[in-house]
Structures are given as C-alpha cells and as structure tokens.
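Following the same procedure, sequence and fold were stored together, as reproduced here.

>
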Amino acid sequence: MIESDRELSSIMQELWDSDVNRLQPGKDYRISLQGKAAHSMPLEDLNDGAGSPLFTFVDETIFKKETFLAFISLLDNYVSDTGEPEIVTPEEVAENHKFLDCIIQSPTMKIAHKYLVEKNLSPKNETKFKEQLYRVWFELYARKGASKPDSSGFEHVFVGETRGGRTVIGFHNWIQLYLQEKMGHVDYKGYSVDAHSPQPDENKHILALQFSWKDGIKPKGSIFVGVSPEFEIALYTVCFLSSPNERVKVQFSFYDVEIVCHHHNEKHIGTTYPVLLKYRKPAQ
C-alpha cells in the first residue's frame, strides 16, 4: 500500500469510528440479498434476480436525527433527467445550507475538517470551509451533452439521475434507495458480483447491486448501507480534495475498499462511490 493510501486509511478509520449515527445491520435495518443480478444485454432483457424488495426492515426513528432529517429534505429538490436545467429555489438553497450546518457540527465532519486543514486543502475558518463544501457538492454544472447547468455532485451521488430516460446514473445512497423502494419507484433486481469481488452478505456495509428506478435501469451500482450522511460526505470530500488520481485504495474496519471519485472541472464532484475489494472477517 503506498504511503498516501496508508495515511488516508488511517483517517478513514477515524471517520468510521466516529460515525455514531451508523445503523447496525440485523438490528436497525435488515436487507434481503436474494439472487444474483443478470448482466446480459440489452438492458431491457435483464432478468429479475430478486422477487422481493432489498430492505425488509429499517428502524425509521433514525430519520428523526438532525443530519438524516436535513439530508432527506434535499432528496425532492431535483429533476432527475440530465439535460433538464435545474432551477434552485431560495427554499432549496436554505435546505442545502441547513444540511451543511448540521453535518459540520458532527464528530465525523470535524475530524475530516481538521485533517483537510492540516493538509492545507481546506480553510480553517468554518464559514469558509462550508463555502468550499457548498461548491464541491451543490454548485450546479452542465453534465456531458447539456447546454445549461443540469447537475451537481450531490444530485448525482445521493439522489440519482436518468439519462435518456433509460439509464440510471449516480444514485449511490442507501437512504434514497430505501425511501424510493418504499414508494414503489425502485425495483431491486439482485446483487452484483464478479470473479474479483467478495461474496456479499447481509451484514456488510458495502453492497454492489442492480435496480430499476422510474423507467431506467442501473446495471450495476455500489453503495454504503447503514452509514450516516455525514460519514459519506466526510469520506468523499476527503478523497476528492486529497486524491487527484480519482481512485484510492483504503482499509478501514473489516473492509478493503477502492473509493472511486471522478472530478468535474477540478472544482466539483462528478461521481463518487465505494467498491468493495476484500472483506477481512472479524476474529471470533
């Protein structure tokens, strides 16, 4: 493991350990993996490897916690189709600021901020740091083929977008997945594995899966399950600001993970998500 990745692993472990709002699998939530997803093309021919929803139970009292509440309020602020310009209302801007205000006060985000300041990657001043976070996550930009600003890092990663009505892009968040599945907008089609990926199980916090959303399909997506919004924003922000190579391998808890983080114009997050490389079983 190269030195920079070792250092990032150390900070990721701190972020993980400080995530007091993380849900416990089997207790706070339960998922049902069912069958393996098909990977045949064309997309409309994909068979459903799962007859039932992914989530069988989530203790929704967690959604009353401040950071979760502020996060969920943002999920209905976007038009999913790329190419459709986003109109951001003053109310939505206020919701974005409220969310950042909430997570900046969390232990996880404080650790991330301290690390980024030490590396001269973020301003020490909290207000200026919040402005940096706003630019990285919420500032609109035009995705490929769009003439007007139609996307943001937050929309792509946490809410999801559709391209041409047929393909789902982004959408790497378990809370959005759970809420959309509960409303009947998401159809889980099974888990994704290949020769190099570890077999998933229902107690791991990282999952590769396939699902349809609205009229589009996500052939393969990878998400953290059960973690808090502040953990994801902290982890992805650290990777975005400290790793120009867009793929960083880190180890924390029982996971060897590659964090994919594509930059857009160097100022914004294009996409970011975890890929589970290896699972180190806890000692009995």
Q: What stands out?
A: Residues 3-17 form the longest helix (15 residues). The two ends are 26 Å apart (CA to CA). Residues 6-17+55-163+228-279 form one domain. The longest strand covers residues 268-279.
